[in-house]
Each structure stands twice: as structure tokens, then as C-alpha cells.
Design goal:
448 residues; globular; 14 helices; 83% helix; single chain
């Protein structure tokens, strides 16, 4: 491994920033990629934003299975790189990719065949929104296997310690989507199909470029890499052991989120759905950045865990926590102060803007602890303890639904839903942070 990608040596802060900034920027790019479609669809009408918001939740649901493949591959690569076992690291990379393509294809077929039943779940009584959501989901689902594949390769690069190449490729994919989506939607006249096709083209191009980089470009993790390598069932099973808790966490999070979305759609109508979709995507800019940093922590601590450098693990956690405290404070201030102009970029109906504004301000209050939580979760996952943050997340997300339904029925109305979400986020963050503190007190304080 080239020394520049060795996370077990050198200044922690500099290496952490070098590793994490491209991942965080990549997360921004991914979220901006999603918001590009919503921005252009908003030019067609509120019903298109609402429809994309409903259909898009099944894309988020698919991410649970993508995380299963990516996290397992990233942990396998990072820990074995730290041990100096490059051959096993490559096997994890190859098997994680194969698993991702298979799982992504199965999920796509299921979504296309069941799309009308899936959209019906939200109990949306507007037939126009339901029809648009069905048509959009039928096409955009094709992008799922491509997304699975390129996300896993991004995780492999992260586990290796080189996050710049995925960043540049993802940036190109975003620019491609920004250029072709309005052309397909307005110039070619494909409407909602144009937004979906633009995402397919961007995802497929992203995957092809990353596969080329893995085989040919300098700075790649392995001298030789094949997506057709023989399946190693031991590696597949270990990927699943690491990845299934994360997949369960993400799957339940999205499923319960969809239950809350059903509440919003049935009790508060199309405008609230559109406002929720827009505000959630704006807030997700902070969520994705914190998640990107957590992914960097997973790779960083994974390499050092493989090398048994406990003093470096502890120092990394302290430094990362301080960085994310500062970032979380910035996010809270930004969402509170600029909530109205941020939502107004996508919506122009004053009552919908108010709903979106209130969401951002209430959720913004939980962002500081949430960002700190990401560091603790990344630390657990880097050491292969993926089940611990998953347990906390699953229980707190169940709490989210009950609190949201209870408060929505009160005089708080739609704001009760937002308060319920913020309460559950806070409980989860405090729980994970305390559990991580207790866990680290049991670990060695010196290198083994």
C-alpha cells in the first residue's frame, strides 16, 4: 500500500481531513444529484414534487441493502489493509461488488413488479400524484443496480484510504445529471420520465468510470481486480455478518419513515408531502455530510484496528468528535436562520413554505448531537461492531413513530410530527455516545 493511503501512520488530523473531505463532498454530490431531479420537477408542479417524494422513498429503502454490501466490503478491506493482508482485502472488494449487483437487480425487479401496491401504501387520495409516482418509480428503479455497484466501489476506495478518485467521478456524474435532466424533461418533452432516465444515465456512467479506475487508473487499491472473480462464500458470509445489522437498521429506519410519510399524506395532504420532501432533502445535506464523515471514521479506525493501534484509535475519535461538534453547530445555525430561503428555492406556495421552514428549524436543534453520534457509530463499525449502533437506531426509530403519531393528534398538528422526529434523534444520539464511552473504557489503552 502506498504510504499516502496508510492511515496507521502520520498526523491524524491531516490524514483524517484528507480522507473525510472527499467522502463528505461525495455525500453532498449524491444529495445534490437527488435534489437536481426534484428542482426540475418542481418546475412542472407541486404534484410532481410530491410524487417524486413518495417514489423516492423506495430508492432510500433500497439503500439498506446497498449499505449491507458496502459496509461489509469496506470493513473487510480496511481491516485487512491494516493487517497487511492485501489478497484478502481484494477478495472482500470483489465479493462485495458481486453481492451488490445481485441484490440490486433483485430489488429492482421487485419494485417494478410491485410498484402500484407500493405507492398505494401511502394512502394518497390524489390520483394525479399516484399516477406520476407509479410512472416515475417504474423507470427510476432501473438505476438501483448501477448505484449499488458504484457505492460499493466507493467503499472499497475508502477502506483503502483513497477517497479522491470516487469524489471526482461522482462529481462528473452530478454534472452529467444536471446537464441532461432538463434536456430530457423539457426539451425532449419526457417530463417525469426524463428525470428518471437522467438518473439512470448518471448512475451507469458513474459505475463504468469507477470500474475503469479500479482496473487501470493510478492510485487504485489493487494491481489486479476482476468483477468476475470466483465467489468466496466465507467472504460473502462475513460481509453479511458485518452488513446485515446496518441493513436492518437502514431498512427499518426507511420503513418507519414511510409510515410517518403515510401519516403526513393521509392527514395533511399533498402540500405537506411536497414540503416534507423538499425540507427533508435540504436537511439531508447535513445528514449525508455527517454520514460521509462517519464512513471515513469507519475506514480510518478499521485500518488501525487491523494494526492493533489502540492509542491512535482513541486519538482519532477525540479529534473527529471535536470536528463534528463544530460542524453540527454550524448546521444548526444554518437550518434555523436560512430555513425559509432554502425551502423557497423549491416551493412557492406560502403555507407549504411554512411547513418546510418549521421542519428545518425543529430538526436543526438535534443536529449537533447527531453529528457527534456519527463519529461513535463509525468507530463501532470500523472495529466490526456494527450491531451496536444498529440496535440503538432500530429502537429509537420505533420510538419516533409512536411519538410522531401521538403529537400529530395534539394541537401541534404537523409540527408534532417534526418534534417527534427530533426527540427520537436526540434519544438515539445520547444512547450511542454513552454506549461508545462505556465500550472504550474496556479497551486497551496502549498498542498491542
Amino acid at each position: 500500500m502506498k504510504r499516502q493511503f496508510d492511515l496507521t501512520e502520520g498526523p491524524i488530523f491531516n490524514k483524517l481531513l484528507t480522507l473525510s473531505l472527499p467522502i463528505m463532498a461525495t455525500s453532498f454530490i449524491q444529495m445534490a444529484n437527488n435534489m437536481t431531479g426534484i428542482f426540475w420537477l418542481s418546475r412542472l408542479g407541486t404534484e410532481y414534487v410530491a410524487a417524486a417524494g413518495l417514489a423516492g422513498q423506495f430508492l432510500w429503502l433500497s439503500m439498506a441493502f446497498m449499505f449491507m454490501c458496502r459496509i461489509g466490503a469496506e470493513i473487510g478491506v480496511s481491516q485487512n489493509i491494516g493487517k497487511g493482508n492485501h489478497e484478502d482485502a481484494k477478495k472482500y472488494a470483489q465479493n462485495g461488488f458481486v453481492l451488490a449487483i445481485i441484490v440490486g437487480t433483485v430489488f429492482t425487479v421487485a419494485v417494478i413488479l410491485l410498484r402500484s401496491y407500493l405507492i398505494r401504501f401511502f394512502n394518497m387520495d390524489d390520483p394525479v400524484v399516484v399516477d406520476i409516482a407509479n410512472r416515475y418509480l417504474m423507470v427510476v428503479a432501473v438505476s438501483i443496480p448501477f448505484s449499488f455497484g458504484h457505492f460499493v466501489i466507493t467503499g472499497v476506495y475508502g477502506g483503502y484510504g483513497n477517497t479522491k478518485i470516487p469524489f471526482f467521478i461522482n462529481g462528473f456524474g452530478l454534472l452529467l445529471n444536471i446537464v441532461i435532466s432538463p434536456i430530457l424533461i423539457f426539451v425532449v418533452g419526457l417530463g417525469v420520465y426524463g428525470a428518471a432516465i437522467g438518473m439512470i444515465i448518471a448512475s451507469a456512467t458513474n459505475l463504468c468510470l469507477k470500474l475503469w479506475a479500479m482496473k487501470k487508473y493510478s492510485g487504485r487499491p489493487f494491481a489486479q481486480y476482476s468483477i468476475l472473480a470466483k465467489i468466496n462464500w466465507d467472504k460473502i458470509l462475513q460481509i453479511l455478518r458485518w452488513g446485515v445489522p446496518v441493513a436492518a437498521e437502514s431498512f427499518l429506519f426507511t420503513t418507519l419513515f414511510m409510515v410517518v410519510s403515510r401519516l403526513i399524506a393521509s392527514d395533511f395532504g399533498q402540500g405537506a408531502v411536497a414540503a416534507h420532501s423538499v425540507a427533508m432533502n435540504v436537511e439531508s445535506l447535513a445528514f449525508m455530510a455527517a454520514g460521509g464523515f462517519a464512513s471515513a471514521i469507519t475506514a480510518f479506525i478499521g485500518q488501525n484496528f487491523g494494526a492493533k493501534k489502540w492509542s491512535r484509535i482513541r486519538s482519532t475519535y477525540r479529534i473527529a468528535t471535536l470536528v463534528m461538534m463544530a460542524y453540527g453547530a454550524l448546521v444548526t445555525i444554518t437550518l434555523f436562520v436560512f430555513a425559509t430561503p432554502l425551502v423557497s428555492i423549491f416551493l412557492d406556495y406560502p403555507p407549504d413554505i411554512i411547513i418546510g421552514r418549521d421542519y428545518l428549524r425543529i430538526i436543526g436543534l438535534a443536529q449537533l448531537l447527531f453529528c457527534m453520534e456519527g463519529v461513535a457509530s463509525g468507530s463501532f463499525r470500523g472495529r466490526g461492531l456494527t450491531y451496536k449502533p444498529s440496535i440503538v437506531s432500530i429502537i429509537s426509530n420505533i420510538l419516533r413513530v409512536f411519538v410522531a403519531y401521538f403529537l400529530a393528534a395534539s394541537a401541534l398538528g404537523i409540527n408534532g410530527v417534526w418534534i417527534g422526529i427530533a426527540i427520537a434523534m436526540t434519544v438515539r444520539s445520547v444512547w450511542i455516545l454513552v454506549w461508545h464511552f462505556i465500550d472504550m473504557r474496556k479497551r486497551p489503552r496502549v498498542d498491542e
